[in-house]
Specification:
Adenylosuccinate Synthetase, Chain A, domain 1; 12 helices; ten-stranded mixed beta sheet; Adenylosuccinate Synthetase, subunit A, domain 2; binds inosinic acid; Adenylosuccinate Synthetase, Chain A, domain 3; globular; 20 strands; alpha/beta; four-stranded mixed beta sheet; about 425 residues
């Protein structure tokens, strides 16, 4: 039985939720390994639409154990609200397991995220303001508060008080904000703790036992490779490791337990928030991609920036994740364009770059070198088999494979689960 890591090969919003959901149908355990409620995946099943931000998409299947791993940062109020929403829709999240080592997003993290962004002005990152960065900052400063701390009220209170001593100084003296009250936060969070208690466990052990028992485990990444804190377009990135390596540390498994790494990419590319974006289109074509592709954030509703598929970035994603196969989503959106362009290299500061540039100065000055391919000028949303795709669409897939250096094994042509098919 395979253990599969599902990663975003672009700047997030590649349709990971949908593909992870597809894999989850056959899975026993689905694990989120990084990020928090900055992510958002919409899952469409028949008439039902689900927007989940924290709970892995596998929760909708009763046979799946959904896991939130130690690498995640968890806003307990959001988690509980998501569980309530699921219950109202007739889905029991009772199976959900939360790592005792996952860090908690505290109210001061959200506050700091928002005021820091304001402080940065036009240099802001464009974060989701969910407190993600400050929560990871505390984790790495060893000032973080973990899920397990909720079960030792004295330790919890001490940690909140100690953390707030510093945070309140920053909030009041640097950012001119009101101080926050430790007592109120402690009371609120211990209430959440009581409700979450049945779900908190050693999830690394749970995953290890599942793999040992030959079960099918899916690791579901959030965000994407180019938003990775180490491998993305720093500083315009998120504060965790969405790359495949992050699944190992963020779930507590070893590399030898992984069988395949599935990279998800859209047939074009998008990003939300600030930062360099070589193939971005600020013209009518970009606007058409936004409108046809419905490119507005699941979490924040923000309009996504769109552009032609960047195969330099995709090849880079294949490399840093060790992607063994690719899923290409939203191929149907490209039906609108008579000619399609693939970014195959960059030109920057008088030089050609075939590989993703290491230096930010180079990346900021990149203009893409394109290869043009004919479009297919026909609706493909009803296609369910590779053979039924127009020849030009199959040629597009083949060229992307060649340039990316990994086979495309899954193609999706519409939002419904049935609009995704396998390609051998
Ligand atoms: P943060 O993760 O909220 O700190 O935001 C950092 C950057 O990552 C911003 O540019 C966000 O727009 C981006 N980001 C965070 N989560 C997602 C996501 O799920 N999809 C796309 N972009 C994201």
């Amino acid at each position: 039985m395979p253990a599969t890591i599902v990663v975003g090969a672009q700047w997030g919003d590649e349709g990971k939720g949908k593909i992870a959901n597809l894999l989850a149908q056959e899975a026993d355990v689905v694990v989120r390994f990084q990020g928090g409620n900055n992510a958002g995946h919409t899952i469409v099943i028949g008439e039902q639409r689900f927007a989940l931000s924290l709970i892995p998409s596998g929760v909708i299947y009763p046979n799946v154990v959904p896991v939130i791993g130690n690498g995640c940062v968890v806003d307990p109020a959001v988690l509980l609200a998501e569980m309530d929403t699921l219950r109202k829709r007739g889905i029991d999240p009772g199976n959900l397991r939360l790592s005792a080592n996952a860090h908690l997003i505290m109210p001061y993290h959200r506050k700091l995220d928002a005021v820091r962004e304001r402080f940065l002005g036009h240099q802001r990152i464009g974060t989701t303001k969910r407190g993600i960065g400050p929560a990871y900052q505390d984790k790495f400063s060893r000032l973080g508060i973990r899920a397990q701390d909720l079960y030792d009220p004295k330790i919890f209170r001490d940690k909140v008080e100690m953390g707030l001593k510093e945070k309140n100084r920053i909030l009041t003296k640097v950012f001119n904000q009101l101080a926050m009250d430790a007592g109120q936060i402690v009371e609120e969070y211990l209430g959440y703790g009581a409700r979450l208690l049945p779900h908190v466990t050693d999830t690394s052990l749970l995953v290890w036992e599942a793999i040992r028992a030959g079960k099918n485990v899916v690791f579901e990444g959030a965000q994407g490779t180019l938003l990775d804190i180490d491998h993305g377009t720093y500083p315009f990135v998120t504060s965790s490791n969405p790359v495949a390596g992050g699944a190992l540390t963020g779930a507590g498994v070893g590399p030898r337990d992984i069988d395949r790494v599935l990279g998800i990419a859209k047939a074009y590319i998008s990003r939300v928030g600030s930062g360099p974006f070589p193939t971005e289109l600020s013209d009518e074509v970009g606007e058409q991609m936004v409108q046809i592709g419905g490119e507005f954030g699941t979490v924040t509703g923000r309009r996504r920036r769109c552009g032609w598929l960047d195969t330099v970035a995709l090849r880079y994603a294949v490399r840093v994740n060790g992607i063994t196969e690719l899923a290409l989503t939203k191929l149907d959106v490209l039906s609108a364009f008579p000619t399609l362009r693939l970014g195959v290299a960059y030109s920057s500061l008088g030089e050609r770059y075939d590989e993703f540039p290491r230096q930010q100065r180079v990346l900021y000055n990149c203009t893409p070198i394109y290869e043009d391919l004919p479009g297919w000028n026909t609706d493909i949303t009803e296609v369910r088999r590779l053979e039924d795709l127009p020849k030009a669409a199959r040629a597009y897939l083949e060229r992307v494979e060649q340039l990316a250096g990994a086979p495309i094994t899954i193609v999706s042509v519409g939002p419904e689960r049935s609009a995704t098919f396998l390609r051998q």
